[in-house]
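A favour, since you know our structure tokens better than I do. What I am after is a single protein written out in full by you. Could you add the entry underneath, on a fresh line?


***
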Amino acid sequence: MFENYKLRNYNFKLVVLVIILCAIGIVVINSADSSYFSKQVFGVAICMVGMLVLSLIDYRFICKFYIALYAANILMLTAILAFGAEVNGAKRWFRVSKTMTIQPSEFTKFLMIICLAVLLVKFKEKLNTPYALAIIAAYCAFPLLLILIQPDLSTTIDIFAIMFTMIFVAGLSYKILGVATLILIPVIGSFIWYIQTPGQKLLNDYQLGRIMAFLYPQDYAAQTYQQDNSVMAIGSGMLTGKGLSSGTIATVKDANFISEQQTDFIFSVVGEEMGFVGCIFIIALIALVVFECISVARKARDKEGMLIASGVAAWMGFQSFINIAVATGLIPNTGIPLPFISYGLSSLVSSCAGIGLVLNVSLQRKRL
């Protein structure tokens, strides 16, 4: 379970990057809504300890329990459909208390990276055979389907992107990738056509509304309200922003134009109060975390470690892109937290756990 690690091999660079991001998150959350400040501070403190402890546990020891972890993940996702708290027609959270909820789909990212890494290693010699691809597809599809029917389309897309990246890194044939792309393009076109037909059954009304608002913003002004105000907030910050915790009447935040700004639209607070400089700084920090995970993957001692680090890199990269792209109006509105910055204990715990795994992979890297 524990190895004899040497302190000089510890990846302090990655730890410092995560601590800086979490510290910025605390400051920005306090600016968005000070009532969440103490909860986020407590959450960060606990998660930092957990991340450091997990970083000392041999990732290969954890991988031995991949079947149990996969089963636990499926059990959580099934239980949420039966016992989860319903909010706006969606069942995504277990309500622990009046002020605390747990979102199992956030932990799916961490658990599926471990489980899929082990499965891909088992199929490393025959990854590109129809049998292996069918098994891997079924293995991934089950938890994705359970998340999709909550419904939680954004998390489903995020986890799909993470798992696809891992499969590609594991050695997916370019020929298969090319065929899949040729199939996917008309499928996407057909999907966009179908959802616009009367009586479509694939999407809920709010999901359809967000996509239609993105395609035809002039006809769905009410649906683009959140994103329009987010873009206005980011733009109003100009180069250096209006200052943290700015309380002037000119701030979008204090005018309550964006609901739940401390979570999915936290980047609009960054843009408004820290300006273009603050936005670029945070994007650069996240990019450095992604690149550091990629560096760890390249130096991993085995394929499991390489796939775990690659999965976490994809996780941080794709999720950050989705969150920032929504806040800036580049893609349809869909709720997903910005890693380490947004308020939310489930997201923070799972993200720090992922980094903890990467830190352990880094501790056991190949000696070059």
Notes: DSSP finds 13 helices and three strands in the chain. The longest strand covers residues 90-95. The radius of gyration is 21 Å. Residues 9-363 form one domain.
